[in-house]
Design goal:
The structure holds two protein chains of two kinds. By secondary structure, chain A is of the alpha/beta class. Chain A contains 17 helices and twelve strands. Helices cover 48% and strands 12% of the residues of chain A. Classes of the chains: A alpha/beta, B alpha/beta.
């Protein structure tokens, strides 16, 4: 114990104490095709292959391939000084295998540098943590195996779907042996506290928590190209200037965002890639910050205290709660019906049904049924293949009805 | 005998029973040697024109004189109304309509009396606009054609009938397939009401599709009872030449609602009854086919009740899909709050499906082999559904007797009565 503390102390002396932790979420759902009542009992294939393939190819060309190249160059250029981390959902990896093996190869190259961390999550980017510990653990294991299979890395850090976190979820994650978990630095959770420290779970203090600095993260992810924003245009110098204005005692700046930010949400023409290329150099020249991956951060920095989250929070919308996925009658009906099938699915040996079971759990399907169209309506519309939440619900329930018929046949 | 007939829709481009009824009736009339010019706002080219001449109002250019016919236009100033009146709209249409700007009044007028006008032939936000233009075209057609009597189907074409009568001096028969009270309950649209009342007053005879509607016309619109005659609708005896393309993919029995999902059709009573049945009998699925302004509320209600894995929304169905849907159904329910007639139960019975209909429907006046319940009595409705699903004796009886009964309801009979009415107004 003494030795470990000494090691940390030396680490702090010899390395930059202050650090930036970059984490990117890579996720694609298996979108459902239009599935009518007449198809129930006849058509066991639920997915819109054309949409899934074309969207994957589009995002690959605009984001994954160019962004991976930029990061690969930066990691190589700065040796071990520039580091990043990813969580790639199992559904995204499955789609890479099917439609974009070039993307998968480029992630493997990043993994091979040794300076990129890959993070655990549920296989299908699901909401299972809110419903069933067993199902949640099953999916996390599936995902962990997938990551190890492709990248030769066993993840040490955990990130739940859309940063959904509560004390209870944290406890489950700690039980699975993870030392660090990512969450949203939500105002209603933190109160006066700053997200720029390491915290820990109150039930199991061994689980360290890294909290997203949503101000600085969203400056890049959402506001970068917004000409109405007074920070526009955002340059690396300006951004590092803001970092330098932070209290010197603040230790870690967690910049968490969708990977699709680069090239897809913020187009190449906005200069987002140039910003990225300039950022590490500017950070090294102008500040005393460094870069670390989540598991390195908690090696270096001790938690300053606990953060209590009795009710789940997430990184979605203004409310930072679960209402993007759950809470209205449509979402609850679909969600409860889906998870009433857990036991039956377990008894069923069919690999096809197991695969559909995973893909149907993807949180996006519930997101499409969201009826709050006001403050965050634009974001919801952008990601939504349906004209209305009602349409999304009908389609999902038709498919689920067919799935139930198949499941009953399988377990009969 | 030659009839100038005005209708808003004609198969296959229909939104409900109106177009189907027009088709059946005109075919029946042709059987008795009646010539007809049938004017629709917009023709698509694939209508069945074997027994009548279909005129596309959009293809009729207005002559200079008629454009100067603005005098006439002024006479029927009640036609100049705002264009936000939209009776039958699906949620998608509603969204589209209100995304666009509503035309201002002068623009409407200018466009209505311009030389050419493009009809959508639907029930969109420029409906009043189209109704007015249609009336003007009617006048143009009436001026240049020979005929003995004018026949207008439902309020959208009453102004056209009135205009044609003004120009030609020929007698006018209007055919009430529905009234504003059926569509909107007590919260009627007064502009529509006024048009309906005017049409009934100007007409030489008013045909209603049921005694239920006849009473409304007499009591609510104050029309002389001697002028109002009931002619019940019928149904085409031959099934449409359609192969059944979709077969049932589920083991459970299917109970179907098919119609616009609007106040008039009582969809909420169907859902509540479904919920009651599902509590007793898990071996059944419910299907609501159609669209309408209450659809989203109905979807939400189904979710709230937690029956969404057994209650399905099939969307709006067209021709062959309707046949498919009936072929899969074990019970058909029409819980209309107010239904002047209601052709769809007849179509169900023709496909050997037992039906449950509300007492508040015109069709209940003529049907014997159907279960009749009050639309609000969801217990009775649930009971009837359960009975038809589980007691084979009654359902098989309904299947055979119902089919016979429907096959004896012929459009020829209805057409014969209509022809008699023509004779009475011509002499």
């Amino acid at each position: 114990m003494q030795l470990l503390k000494l090691k940390k102390f030396i680490n702090q002396l010899y390395h930059n104490m202050r650090t930036i932790c970059f984490y990117f979420q890579v996720h694609q759902p298996f979108r459902l095709k239009r599935y009518r009542f007449f198809d129930i009992g006849h058509d066991p294939y639920y997915f819109d292959e054309f949409a899934n393939k074309s969207i994957m190819r589009k995002v690959a060309e605009k984001c994954y391939l160019p962004a991976n190249q930029v990061f690969l160059d930066l990691v190589k250029e700065y040796g071990g000084r520039f580091k990043i981390s990813y969580s790639i959902s199992g559904t995204a990896i499955d789609q890479f295998e099917m439609y974009a093996p070039d993307v998968l190869e480029s992630f493997k190259k990043l993994a091979a540098t040794g300076h990129v961390e890959f993070i655990s999550e549920t296989y299908s980017h699901s909401l299972s943590a809110l419903k069933s510990k067993d199902e949640f653990e099953r999916q996390v294991k599936l995902h962990r195996n997938k990551i190890e299979q492709h990248f030769g890395i066993v993840p040490k850090t955990f990130r739940n779907t859309e940063l959904i976190y509560s004390d209870k979820v944290g406890e489950m994650v700690a039980d699975m042996g993870y030392k660090v978990m990512l969450m949203e630095g939500a105002k209603h959770v933190l109160g006066w506290k700053s997200p720029n420290y390491v915290y820990c779970n109150p039930i199991n203090p061994k689980l360290n928590l890294l909290l997203k600095n949503f101000q600085l993260s969203d400056d890049i992810a959402f506001r970068f190209s917004n000409r109405g924003w007074d920070g526009w245009p955002l340059t690396a110098e300006k951004f590092v200037g803001w970092l330098n204005q932070l209290d010197r005692r603040e230790e870690v700046i967690n910049l968490f965002m969708d990977y699709e930010t680069f090239g897809e949400h913020q187009w190449k023409e906005t200069g987002i890639f140039d910003f990225l290329k300039a950022l590490p150099r500017t950070v090294f020249n102008m500040s005393d910050f460094g870069f670390n991956t989540p598991s390195e951060v908690v090696e270096k920095i001790d938690p300053v205290g606990v953060v209590n989250v009795p009710y789940p929070c997430s990184w979605a919308d203004e409310e930072r709660d679960l209402t993007a996925w759950l809470g209205n009658a449509l979402q609850d009906e679909a969600f409860n019906n889906l998870y009433s099938l857990i036991d039956k699915v377990e008894k069923c040996g069919s690999p096809d049904l197991k695969r559909d079971w995973l893909y149907l759990q993807t949180s996006d399907h519930f997101y499409y049924m969201c009826t709050k169209w006001f403050s965050d309506g634009d974001v919801h519309k952008y990601f939504n293949p349906y004209n209305s939440p009602y349409e999304a619900f009908i389609n999902y329930m038709n498919i689920l009805s067919d799935f139930i018929i198949r499941l009953n046949k399988c377990t009969r | 005998m030659k009839v100038l007939m005005f209708g808003w829709e004609f198969p296959p481009h229909i939104t409900g029973g109106l177009g189907t009824a027009c088709y059946g009736l005109t075919k029946g009339l042709a059987h008795f040697g009646v010539d007809m010019i049938f004017v629709v706002p917009k023709s698509y080219g694939d209508e069945d024109e074997s027994f009548l001449r279909l005129r596309d109002a959009g293809q009729v250019a207005l002559s200079e004189e008629l454009i100067n016919y603005e005098e006439f236009w002024k006479k029927i100033t009640y036609l100049e109304v705002g264009s936000t009146l939209i009776p039958y709209m699906s949620p998608e249409e509603f969204e589209l309509a209100f995304e666009g700007k509503i035309l201002d009044h002068t623009e409407i007028k200018k466009s209505v009396i311009s030389k050419h006008f493009k009809f959508s032939g639907t029930y969109g936000k420029n409906l009043m606009h189209e109704v007015s233009r249609y009336a003007l075209i009617a006048a143009a057609i009436a001026e240049t054609n020979q005929f003995d009597v004018i026949h207008s189907h439902d309020w959208l074409t009453y102004p056209a009938g009135i205009a044609a009568k003004e120009v030609s001096g020929k007698p006018l028969v209007i055919h009430v397939h529905a009234t504003e009270f059926d569509r909107s309950g007590e919260h009627i649209n007064h502009q529509v009401f006024d048009i309906e009342k005017k049409g009934m007053e100007v007409a030489d005879k008013v045909i209603t599709v049921s005694n239920l509607t006849r009473n409304i016309v007499i009591e609510r619109y104050g029309i002389d009872p001697d002028k109002v005659v009931t002619v019940h609708n019928a149904v085409d005896p031959v099934t449409i030449n359609n192969e059944i393309t979709n077969t049932k993919g589920v083991d459970e029995k299917i109970v179907t609602f098919l119609g616009r999902i609007t106040f008039q059709k009582g969809p909420e009573y169907f859902i509540e009854a479904a919920n009651k049945v599902l509590k007793k009998d898990p071996n059944v699925r419910f299907v609501m086919a159609g669209s309408g302004d209450m659809m989203n509320r109905m979807i939400k209600r189904v979710a709230e009740l937690g029956i969404a894995t057994k209650f399905h929304f099939a969307g709006f169905l067209k021709g062959s899909e309707v046949v498919d849907m009936f072929s899969m159904s074990d019970v058909y329910v029409m819980p209309s709050v107010s239904e002047p007639f209601g052709i769809s139960p007849l179509e169900a019975m023709r496909s050997s499906v037992p039906v449950i209909i509300s007492k508040q429907s015109g069709v209940s006046e003529i049907l014997h082999h159907a279960i009749k319940v009050d639309f609000w009595d969801i217990d009775a409705m649930a009971d009837a559904i359960y009975g038809l699903l589980n007691y084979n004796a009654i359902s098989s009886m309904f299947r055979t007797l119902g089919k016979d009964e429907v096959e004896n309801l012929k459009w020829e009979n209805a057409a014969f009565k209509v022809k008699e009415i023509y004779k009475s107004v011509i002499s």
